[in-house]
Write a structure and sequence with these properties.
By secondary structure, this protein is mainly alpha-helical. It has a domain of 68 residues. It has three helices and two strands, in the order ββααα. It has a two-stranded antiparallel ribbon.
Length: 121
């Protein structure tokens, strides 16, 4: 019998499977590999720059939130001593100026929440 086999109408020759290695110049292959490595390093550098910027922006946001938290803690301690901080007074007066006549409904909402919080304490 012939060494060639017929499979689906095509003649198959025995031997290695898969693609045959192309006859390419070793220098060209090496240069392509170097270029690919350069591009990979450039992408990595950009990725790290982006991540560093992201981290620094998150750190700035954390600092701002800590300052805000400290401010609220100071306000709470002042209110515990019976003093109303000037910032809160300014917020309340600005809120009353924004809604003329509507301040009564807001105080009723606030009195409801105050009643609940006072009842639970």
């Amino acid at each position: 019998m012939d060494e060639n086999k017929m499979v689906a109408g095509k003649v198959k020759k025995p031997g290695k499977r898969g693609r045959k290695p192309a006859k390419i110049d070793l220098k060209a292959k090496l240069e392509r590999s170097r270029q690919s490595a350069r591009e990979c390093r450039a992408r990595k550098k950009l990725r790290y720059q982006y991540l560093e910027e992201l981290v620094s922006s998150k750190e700035r946001a954390i600092c701002a939130l800590r300052e805000e938290l400290e401010m609220y803690k100071q306000w709470c301690s002042a209110m515990d001593q019976g003093k109303i901080p000037s910032e809160i007074k300014a917020l309340l007066t600005a809120d009353e100026q924004k809604t003329p006549g509507g301040g009564a409904t807001k105080t009723s909402k606030n009195s409801k929440t105050n009643g609940i919080s006072n009842g639970s304490s």
